[in-house]
Amino acid sequence: MYTFAIVALLALATIKLVDYLDDSIGGLDKIKGLLTFVVPIVAVFAIDYSMFPAWGVSVSEEWMGKLVTGFVVAGMTSPWRALFGYLTAGKAEDDESLRHHDHLRRAA
């Protein structure tokens, strides 16, 4: 349970850091998707965290567990962005995960 919370909160921190960098440094729109993958991988290696030992899963190499954990954190950014898009009054058009989905209908 704590492992899932750590991964989810690292994904939230990734979103906010990438958004902050995008707002602070102009012209990062083109590499925002790449930053969403690079930032969590670097963060996971920096804090020396892998989700696999907490679940009792053995990984052949420690660095592979950290790399996959970074990819899982990067993947958890999409649900956060979708949740933010749902909770905001207007559509967040700057969010790359929410673009070009106007044809979808929301169930009542």
Properties at a glance:
108 residues, mainly alpha, 4 helices, 0% strand
Summarize the structure.
The protein has 108 residues and is an all-alpha fold. It has helices at 2-24, 32-47, 62-75, 77-87. Helix content is 59%, strand content 0%.
Radius of gyration: 16 Å
Order of helices and strands: HHHH
Which stretches of 5+ consecutive residues score pLDDT under 50? Answer: none
Global geometry: globular
Compute the number of strand runs: 0
Biggest beta sheet attributes:
none
Helix fraction?
Answer: 55-70%
What's the average pLDDT?
Answer: 85
Percent of residues in β-strands: under 5%
SS element count, helices: 4
Number of domains: 1
User: How far apart are the first and last residues' alpha carbons, in Å?
Assistant: 31 Å
The helix-and-strand class reads: mainly alpha
What does this protein structure show overall?
Helix 1 (about 1-25) crosses helix 2 (about 30-45) and helix 1 (about 1-25) crosses helix 3 (about 60-75). The protein has one domain (about 1-100). It has helices at about 1-25, 30-45, 60-75, 75-85. It is about 60% helix and about 0% strand. The chain is built from 4 helices and no strands. By secondary structure, it is an all-alpha fold.
SSE inventory with pairings:
Layout: H1 2-24, H2 32-47, H3 62-75, H4 77-87
Helix pairs in contact: 1-2, 1-3, 2-3
